[in-house]
Amino acid sequence: MKRRRKPSSPIHLSAPPLTVRPPLYFPVAGAMDIDDILADIAVETIPQETRDLQELTRCWVAERVAPEILAWPVELMERVLDRVRRQIELVEDQTGNMDPKTNFKLIVIQTELERFKFLVRSFLRARIAKIDKHPLHILAQHNASLTDPDARNPLLSPSEHQYLTSHQSLLSTHYSSSFLGQFPAALQRLDDTAGGISMVDKPDEDCAVFVRCLRDVGEVAVEGTEKVIRIKRGDVWVVRWCAVRRWVLAGDVELV
């Protein structure tokens, strides 16, 4: 498999790429920009279920694109999982009383339920894949997020943390019985940092990502280069993850 080449410098795209989330940007003829129209729409007028679906889709896209695991959206997932449970109960109750093939309302509910379930499952698969790939690094980051006063949400959910610790315990036991037990005690640690070299595998922070700017960020310096880019609202860039990570976590920039 050929490795993707990292861009030597950020690339500015003149048009947004196609994304899987519900499109909110359409070409409109006339002087008024579509962003101006959307800005006039009050968030309160959008149903909570629609907002949750849009936010879940954004989290799903971001988690699949970002090289590192992102913070667990506590409040969003509580609402989504509670809604999924209630819809499952409703479907089971109505299925027992009437023919699901002739009940159009039930078909709509089942379709909406499957959409939520697909997003949740794919979102969790992406996170579990990262946990399996970088367990020690993610565990250290999660522990740091619990004591960080600026962290709005923990890095992992309780279930993910339990999975990580159990998975890592099984791996450590397997490695010790297979070959680590034959090494000197000083060489048996999986998180050894002796000699200034860490054995903990980390995500590639220099990989390229597509981002869309939601608010004016200003000038951004790309580490390792003399390139300085100015990111404005509505811009779409191909840039290194390390250059825009802080703005993605702050919500000023979104991954696409």
UniProtKB/TrEMBL annotation:
<dbReference type="InterPro" id="IPR021151">
    <property type="entry name" value="GINS_A"/>
</dbReference>
<dbReference type="GO" id="GO:0000727">
    <property type="term" value="P:double-strand break repair via break-induced replication"/>
</dbReference>
<keyword id="KW-0539">Nucleus</keyword>
<dbReference type="GO" id="GO:0000811">
    <property type="term" value="C:GINS complex"/>
</dbReference>
<dbReference type="InterPro" id="IPR008591">
    <property type="entry name" value="GINS_Sld5"/>
</dbReference>
<feature type="domain" description="DNA replication complex GINS protein SLD5 C-terminal">
    <location>
        <begin position="203"/>
        <end position="256"/>
    </location>
</feature>
<keyword id="KW-0235">DNA replication</keyword>
<dbReference type="InterPro" id="IPR031633">
    <property type="entry name" value="SLD5_C"/>
</dbReference>
<comment type="function">
    <text>The GINS complex plays an essential role in the initiation of DNA replication.</text>
</comment>
<dbReference type="Pfam" id="PF16922">
    <property type="entry name" value="SLD5_C"/>
</dbReference>
<feature type="domain" description="GINS subunit">
    <location>
        <begin position="88"/>
        <end position="178"/>
    </location>
</feature>
<protein>
    <recommendedName>
        <fullName>DNA replication complex GINS protein SLD5</fullName>
    </recommendedName>
</protein>
<dbReference type="InterPro" id="IPR038749">
    <property type="entry name" value="Sld5_GINS_A"/>
</dbReference>
<dbReference type="InterPro" id="IPR036224">
    <property type="entry name" value="GINS_bundle-like_dom_sf"/>
</dbReference>
<dbReference type="Pfam" id="PF05916">
    <property type="entry name" value="Sld5"/>
</dbReference>
<dbReference type="GO" id="GO:0006261">
    <property type="term" value="P:DNA-templated DNA replication"/>
</dbReference>
<comment type="similarity">
    <text>Belongs to the GINS4/SLD5 family.</text>
</comment>
